[in-house]
Design brief:
By secondary structure, the protein is mainly beta. Helix content is about 0%, strand content about 70%. It is globular and about 35 Å long.
Length: about 80
């Protein structure tokens, strides 16, 4: 399992790009089987927003990272 930790910079129906804690951009594919948790509660893909802090548990599939679980919370300033 690969962990991608950071803030969402780009979001589409099929993928998310995360600016990681070490300042890299990592693209992760969102599959139909991906599960979502917001603040430890079940959530939906539609709840994700650019700027949310995420921890994505992903696996390498066909040369790309595919999300198994996306845990996220809103960044508070």
């Amino acid at each position: 399992m690969i962990h991608v930790i950071g803030v969402i910079t780009t979001l589409t129906d099929k993928s998310v790009t995360v600016k990681t804690t070490d300042n890299k951009s990592v693209a992760v594919v969102l599959a139909d089987t991906t599960t979502y948790e917001k603040n430890k509660t079940a959530a939906a893909r539609s709840d994700l927003k650019v700027g949310d802090r995420v921890v994505i548990h992903a696996m390498k599939m066909s040369g790309a990272l595919q999300a198994h679980t996306v845990e996220f919370s809103e960044v508070t300033h």
